[in-house]
Amino acid sequence: MENLASLTIAQVKEGLRTKKFSALELAREAVRFAEAENPKTNGYLTFSPELAEEAASLVDARIARGEDPGLLGGVPIAVKDVLSTKGVRTTCASRLLEKYVPAYDATAVDRLKAAGALIIGKANCDEFAMGSSNENSAFGPVRNPVALDRVPGGSSGGSAAVVAQGTAVASLGSDTGGSIRQPASFCGVVGVTPTYGRVSRYGLVAFASSLDHVGPFARNVSDAALVLEAIAGRDELDATSAFAPVDDYQTEMRKPVAGMKIGIPKEYFEGLEAETGDKIHAGLDVLRKLGCEIKEVSLPHTPYAISCYYIICTAEASSNLARYDGVRYTARAEAATLTDMYAKTRGEFFGMECKRRIMLGTYVLSHGYYDAFYLKAQKVRTLIAGDFSNALRDVDALVAPVSPFPAFKIGEKMADPMQMYLSDIYTITGDLAGIPCMSVPCGNTAQGLPVGMQIFSGHFKESSMFRLAYAFEQAGGVA
Ligand code: GLN
């Protein structure tokens, strides 16, 4: 049996086509291997062998009938534990939902299944996707497979770690302020945050609804684009999902990049670690050699992004998390009165970070403060989005670092939430603007820690972003 850790989607398809292995064999081996390796990183919270084997049997039957096994036919995939999976527990890495088993699939999961993917398990993450290091999981932190004493990033730390570790070929994560790109950069894999509305949020447990995005992780650009193609597109069940047609990314990304115009936002090169900056500049040199035209641009409202984000996301989170009251879905603490039961349940089962955000969010939405904070933040958000529209009028894409520094040590930033919030300084803006953005591996520091290069493009122009990323990867990237 093939080593799962080295398989790409194309190799899975080839192996099935040439009968090197069956989908069922692959499903069994993938779950066995992922379970055996998991103690090293804690990337998975739950395994779903029945789901994987059931899907594999369907794929094998399709192949036996001479049919197309699907875009992701037979591909072992992990899903972040904030996406609802019918019959498989979905915890959001919270003690509140430790035993919650959804009665339906998220649309993204449903589409993975329709494409023939083998869902092998649910990936660990920060509780309700709140965090930048995966240390806020109620079920223990995830360790970065590249350096086990370091964080994998967050909040989709498990989704990034399992792909980097080789215990899944690809995975799904969610990104509200950087939670796909930042862990992808810390673990040295590709992570994609599509345009807001490109992928349905139906069945994604809501953190901050106007900022939440579902997107893929993979070990190369082509695989990530393939997973996105499978899950993208209009969904009647999510009113914010877009009608815009989904491009043929596999064809589009192979178009040459010579003559493409790239903007370098100068604000994204202030205050980052020198080694990270050097790698990104080396990455830009590669793009220059490929014939891209590079020029400096400005996104002047960048300094307000963190404040703006932490007002909007906490406001929305405080409302979204109100449903966990001990009556529906969740664990319940016993108390004499209903009000006491609500308070005790929420007090006992929510982790620290969730409580901090519920308090902040309730405060910024409270009477008398609403205009000063929430409304103001919405206006700032419009200015930040405007910065990107202005810049992207003159260039096809923007290139910047993903994070000011590489993966940090477990425990290093836990005592200081402000420090932790700053790790998303370059990623939050993309979510506020709702534009597509991604992280592509851009070499390692002297200590061997991966650095990610971020690419942004205009709304629904994922193709331009993939084109640059693919050309960069094919050219060998940065050592
Ligand atoms: N780290 C950011 C936060 O804690 C982003 C999280 C996310 O994108 N889900 O809010």
Task: Kindly describe this structure.
With 479 residues, this protein is of the alpha/beta class. It is built from 16 helices and 11 strands. The chain has an 11-stranded mixed beta sheet with strand order 1-3-2-4-6-5-10-11-9-7-8, sandwiched between helices. A hairpin with a 5-residue loop joins strand 10 and strand 11. Bound molecules: glutamine. Glutamine binds next to loops.
Question: What's the structural blueprint in terms of helices and strands?
Answer:
Elements: H1 9-17, H2 23-41, E1 44-47, H3 49-64, E2 76-80, H4 107-114, E3 118-123, H5 157-165, E4 170-175, H6 181-187, E5 190-193, E6 213-218, H7 221-231, H8 249-252, E7 261-265, H9 274-289, E8 293-297, H10 305-320, H11 338-349, H12 352-364, H13 371-394, E9 397-401, H14 417-422, H15 428-433, E10 437-444, E11 450-457, H16 462-474
Parallel strand pairs: 2-3, 2-4, 7-8, 7-9
Antiparallel strand pairs: 1-3, 4-6, 5-6, 5-10, 9-11, 10-11
Helix pairs in contact: 2-3, 2-5, 5-6, 10-12, 10-13
Residues 129-132, 155, 175-179, 207, 313, 424 line the site of glutamine.
